[in-house]
Each structure stands twice: as structure tokens, then as C-alpha cells.
Amino acid sequence: MDISASIRKLTNFFILLFVILSGGLVYWQVVVAAQVTANSHNGRSCLLENSPWRGTIYDRNGIWLAKSVRDPVAQCGYQRVYADPSLAGLIGYYAGPNYASTGIEKQFDGYLSGRITGMSFDSTIDKLLHRSPVGNNLYLTIDERIQQLVNQHFDDPIQIDNQLAYETDRGAIIVTNPQTGEILAMLSRPTFDPNKLVQTVQKGDLSYYNQLNDDKIEQPLLERPLQGRYPPGSSYKTMTLIAGLDTGKTTLKQEFDQKHAIGPINYNGQNIGPEGNNIPGTKHFPVTTEYGFAHSDNIIFAQIGVNAGFNAWMDYNRDFYVEDQIPFDLPIATSHVLPAGRSEMASNELAADAFGQGFDFVTPFQMSLVNDAVANH
How many helices (H) and strands (E) does the chain have? Predict the structure, then answer.
């Protein structure tokens, strides 16, 4: 009997088993590890020892805005807490891996959860050993001191006359650094309590979420600065003035006689003015473009828009991403100035758009880009 031959066969058999076992481990722990972890039937992802420590969100000065704290009753062992409810729409909320998140919590979930860590040695070992990922911290350009001032002064009383000013609890504010475009404060009213939302949802109680989601009038879950769209009114005269000045179709010193400052003027069979001229009756004429801008004269700006021409006026709109997606860290609703399904406008339609009415339907963020361009010279 050849004992050495039997030993070689046994050795080869064990080598084969080792190769098969190693290959299986590599396949399940490396090749398809992500799919296994993400599988809804895999309960280990929510065991306390496997719970990810979600990164903290800070303002520009290192003040924490959102962080995770240990909570024995919360799903996966941690609960998200938020320092400033006035930032709820922007930061959003995170109630665990089995619920949808919103805002920055959703957009940067890969970093905050630690799933996006690069190919460092430590992260590779953690994945192989199925260690809980440690989330990355996130620093925003938000200045919490400015945010609190904005939130406080939103409630300052104003005179309500139900003609030029109406009572409402809804609105949006954006504060930026026009030299850099950094967002220093962003407020959406009405808002919601992200802490209450997380605490209730994690317990399987959707009553508060449904209350917020079903309110179609107040729409507290709508982040108005980014997703709300409104007729911009006279603020859009800034866009028209940019186009008029830059194309040389007007100057700040261009003069308008009484008829062309007060109206009516006619475009395509439609009279514009005298309503909306906003010029005091005691004013001597002519008046200038600069005066018309300061007094928000619709008639003057209708003419500036039409004189600039549809193509030129639209070129400047598109330079500011109107009718397009604004590149930003969070999704922004597309602003529109064109009639639905059309690519051109008649002269009377352009005139109305030029002073901020007509088909204009834009986000507050869109207007901040226009204003920043002027503030940044």
C-alpha cells in the first residue's frame, strides 16, 4: 500500500476545500457584501453592535446642528437630534435606514452614514470584518448666528393693509455671501419639528408625519427657498435691467416722457399702463431708467424688455439657469418664464414678463442668484 500517495490525495483534497472556502468567503464578504448588507431580510444591519454612528452636521463655525445620540429604544440604537428647527427643511431628517430621509440628511447620506469612505486600509478592513461604519462629519456654510436672527425677525410685525401687504405665516428667506455664493442662512415657514418627527416615526407612529404631509395649504414639508415657485413681481425687473444695460438697449440715464413712463403703451393690441406706473403725480417729466427702477415702474420696464428683444432677454435668463436645473448641493425646482409648451413669446407677453408678471414663476433661490450678481458687481 502506497501511504505517501494517500497522503498526497488527502492533502490535495484539503487544499481544494480551502480554496473553495476561501473563494466563498471572498465572494460573500467582498464581491456581494453590499447587496447582502442592503438586503431587507438581513436583520444584522440593525443590531446594536452593527449600528452606524452617523456623522454630525455642523455650521461653518463648528456649532452642531444635527447629531446622533445613543437611545436604547430607537431603531438601530441611535436617534438623530436637531438643534435648530428653523433649519428643518434644509437639513431634513433621518429616522433610520428603513425610512425615507430628506434634505441634506438624504443628499449626503453616503458620507454621513460612512458608506462612502474611499479605499483606505481601515475602511477596507472594517468592510471585511463587517464592523459598523463610522459616519463622516459635515460642515455647512450656514452661520447659525445669522440663521437665528433671520428666524427671529421673520416674525417682526408689519403694517397689513390687504392691498399691498397681506397677512400670512408663509415665506422664505435666503441670506448669501454674494462674493462666494455661500448660503449663510435659509428659512422656510411654516416649518416642522424634526425631533418630534424622528421620535414618532422610529416608534412606527406616522400620525405626526401624516399631519404634516396632508396639510396642502401650509405645506410645512415644502422647502420653499428651493422648491417653492412664485410670480416674482417687481423683483424681476433686476433681470430685465441687467439684460437692457448689458446689451446697450438702455442706460441708467435714458429718459422717458410722460406717456412712456405712465402709459398706456400698446404691444400686440394690449395696453400697458397707466396702472402700475408707481410714479408720483407731482413728478416732472422726463424721468430716467434709474428713476423708473427706484420707483418700480412697470411701463418703463415693459419697454426695456421689448427693446432688448426676446432672444437677448431669454439669453440672460438662461445665463442664470432659468428654464434649467441650477447646479447646487440640493435639488432646486426649475424656474420658468416661458408659456407652457412654447419656446417664444409675443411682444405683449414679453412686456409683462419683463416687469415680473406674465408667465414668470421662479424660486426664491433663483432670485438670490440674480441679486447676488448685482451685489457682486
Answer: 17, 10
The tens digit of pLDDT for each residue in 274-284 reads 988 888 877 78
Indicate the burial class of 258 (C-beta count within 10 angstroms; 0-12, 13-18, 19 or more): middle
Contact call for residues 238 and 374 (beta carbons, < 8 A): yes
Rounded to two decimals, what is the model's pTM? 0.81
Distance separating alpha carbons of residues 196 and 205, to the nearest angstrom: 11
Distance CA 183, CA 144 (A): 11
Dump pLDDT digits (tens) for 44-77: 545 444 456 889 999 999 999 999 998 766 555 7
Q: What distance in Å separates the CA atoms of residue 18 and residue 67, rounded to the nearest whole number? A: 45
pLDDT tens for residues 201-245? 988 899 999 999 999 999 999 999 999 999 999 999 999 999 999
**Closest to 229 (Cα-Cα) out of 364, 370, 88:** 364
Give the domain ranges of the chain.
3-43, 233-375
Give strand ranges (E) for 162-300.
Answer: 171-177, 182-189, 255-256, 265-267, 270-272, 287-288
Rounded to whole angstroms, how far apart are CA atoms 97 and 370? 39
Q: Which CATH architecture has domain 233-375?
A: 3-Layer(aba) Sandwich (3.40)
Q: Tell how strand 64-70 and strand 57-58 pair up.
A: antiparallel
